[in-house]
Design brief:
The chain is mostly helical. Helix content is about 75%, strand content about 5%. It folds into two domains: about 1-60; about 170-410, Receptor-associated Protein (Up-down Bundle), CATH 1.20.81.30. The termini are far apart.
């Protein structure tokens, strides 16, 4: 994506200038034509590389900030405040810099004659396809405030789910990190002291077998690698991590990684599945209730589920519905969806209450994720303690084995 500066006029000859973020000039031209503007010039903006631009690339608007913005936007519109004044008000009271810039861009585009939905198309980094689709549907039906309320509810639920998982994993992650640092310090600083003692004893005791036991040799080898080959280990680790992240961004890599996560033991794969199902069902429910066309709603729910397996399943659902079929049939044939989901979707389709049933599915899996995360946390703590204890015990025993061996030989 690049920034393009444009100049255009509307049908009455009033000039309009601004900037748009798009993949090409043709895309910018098409967006302006959809707004009813006659394009005069489009040019790509080339700016010097700045540290700020690099940090912005890795920054995103927090879900909580976006949900508050959406709720306030809906309240101001429902109060009868004109759109431009609403955007000026939101701009003044928003503290997040990235979101503030997006609101300024929205205001400029709306002043140029664009609708809110069209203006949001130029800010894909802030407003995702779900957000933009629900806003466009709300504008088309004359219920923009209702759509924004639904978007805010969606974002609040997603943020709550994300915080729930993060808070549960924070303690085990801290314990694991501290334990790893302690073990690296032991291997790097304490083990070499023992190695020096072993070498000194073996040099003083001539004719005594001073060969190290196998566990000690393993520990000493690891210590030498950490202390003497760190300049090799760190680049290898960095290159390996970079290669993994690049592979995971590819379509094939993402699909393989998401399938692997679903198969992880100790409730981890189960939690990954339930999180994806909760996001999918709530997104599909929200888009349908906002008036988004069913095919577009199915496509968006797959893209925002956060799992390539669910996204592929939604592709099958999309094809089936496009041919005139149902939603529940492809779900029943896919193992990633439990039988309860397909049955509830089937009941929702037959009764005309699909969005309500999907909302109940989302609530059920939100509660399931909460219970599973608590169970996983309670399981991880003793398991981590046992694993760390075994590693530390192995290091301690491996360091004392040569002392016992030398004592026996001397005696």
């Amino acid at each position: 994506m690049a920034n393009f500066a444009f100049s255009a006029v509307d049908v009455s000859g009033i000039p309009a200038k601004g900037e748009l973020e798009a993949a090409s000039k043709a895309q910018v031209t098409e967006q302006l034509r959809r707004r009813g503007l006659i394009v005069l010039d489009v040019s790509e903006k080339r700016e010097a590389l700045k540290l700020e631009s690099l940090t912005q690339r890795f920054k995103s608007v927090k879900l909580r900030e976006l949900s508050v913005f959406s709720r306030q936007f809906a309240t101001l519109i429902a109060s009868g405040m004109p759109m431009l004044r609403t955007l000026y008000t939101l701009e003044d009271q928003t503290e997040d810099e990235m979101l503030k810039k997006a609101i300024v861009s929205l205001r400029n585009d709306v002043e140029s004659g664009s609708s809110v939905g069209q203006a949001m198309e130029s800010q894909p980094g802030v407003f995702d396809p779900l957000y933009r689709s629900m806003v466009r549907a709300g504008e088309g039906a004359g219920r923009l405030e209702d759509s924004l309320e639904r978007v805010a509810f969606q974002l609040e639920k997603l943020d709550s789910l994300k915080r729930q998982v993060k808070s549960a994993m924070a303690y085990p992650a801290v314990v694991f990190t501290v334990a790893m640092l302690v073990m690296i310090a032991v291997v790097a600083f304490i083990v070499p002291v023992f190695v020096g003692i072993f070498e000194e004893i073996s040099s003083e005791q001539e004719g005594v077998d001073a060969s190290l036991p196998l566990p000690t040799q393993i520990t000493v080898t690891v210590s030498e690698a950490v202390t003497g080959r760190w300049y090799v280990l760190i680049p290898v680790f960095a290159v390996g991590l970079y290669g993994f992240l690049r592979w995971k961004r590819t379509e094939r890599g993402r699909a393989a990684w998401d399938r692997f996560k679903l198969k992880l033991p100790a409730h981890i794969g189960d939690i990954v599945q339930k999180v994806a199902l909760a996001r999918w069902s709530r997104t599909l429910s929200g888009t349908i209730s906002s008036g988004v066309p069913i095919l577009q709603a199915i496509e968006i729910s797959g893209q925002t589920a956060g799992n390539a397996v669910v996204e592929q399943a939604m592709s099958d659902v999309y094809d089936n519905v496009k041919r005139g079929g149902s939603i529940h049939a492809p779900l029943a044939a896919n193992p990633v969806f439990p039988a309860m989901v397909s049955h509830m979707v089937s009941v929702g389709e037959e009764s005309g209450q699909l969005e309500g049933m999907l909302g109940k599915v989302a609530d059920f899996y939100d509660a399931e994720v909460d219970a599973k995360v608590k169970a996983l946390t309670s399981l991880l703590e003793p398991v981590m303690i046992v694993i760390i204890g075994l590693i530390v015990g192995f290091i301690v025993i491996s360091m004392y084995l040569p002392i016992f061996s030398l004592y026996e030989n001397i005696r």
